[in-house]
Amino acid sequence: MGDMYKKSGVNLQETEMLNNRIKPVFSSENSLAFAGSAVSDGGVKILTCCDGIGSKIIPLYERKMYKEIAVDLIAANLNDLATRPANAISFQDYIAVNKLDSCAVAEIIIELERELKKYGCRLTGGETSEVPHILREGVIDICGFAVGIEKNLTVQHVEAGDVVIGLKSSGIHANGFTLIRKFLDEDKISNIEFEEMLVPAYVYFNEVQTLWDSGLIKAAANITGGGIFNNLIRVIPENLDVELDYNLIPTQPVFKKLKMLAGDEVYEVFNCGAGFCVIAREECAAKITEICREYEPFIFGKVVKADKEAVL
What we know:
This protein is an alpha+beta fold. It has 12 helices and 10 strands.
């Protein structure tokens, strides 16, 4: 693992140590899950997600890109929820500010409600906190909380021979912006390139739920911080592994530039063009491509027995 991201202010090694320390707190089902689960008194399995959009909030808020903030926040949470067959039922937000700008915060909340309707989800509340002694002037932070109900579907087990199918990302999504902002400060990327990186993440929820409903997929992973392999391996059984060929991911200029700047560390930080991944039988690939055609699905890996090494 490289140390460029660490020097920019984000320590992935410390994050891994934290995860190991708190692992005993969670059940085996929830320890690596993208969406935590609990069974209600009525026997319904409730799924919950919590995520923010990191330091991408800084340039988006500075540019008054309130719709982009809303879409990125929804993507961060509903894409996690999409890793399970689920109906999204409610969403809440937490917004922390140095000094409250009621117009700006109201616009973000209005955009959240408007966008959530696309996924059958409702904004049911939230919290806005004015914390001048915590955040510097002109900066806000935002976090989302999604709740879903797991569908009563029979999901097939992942097996050796299954394929890894990637769904194209819109670009950076909302990970690695601490490093990207460092590159901007050092004039290693241009203002034009930086602006292009601010496009919001894709929200894959509706299409992926169609895949679950159709019985086409066995597992799914949202590719966020930590890169493709570290997120994908979370949904692979312990006796199996994955072989990946990053050369099969359709090239996006932004990741080509970042590879030049950060080398192989890009695979530990960014989605590298695969914003979401599903595991399926190879014969299901054509149907998956048809349903998710907006995201130009591509096969770039396969599931293998654990005694084989993953190709990175």
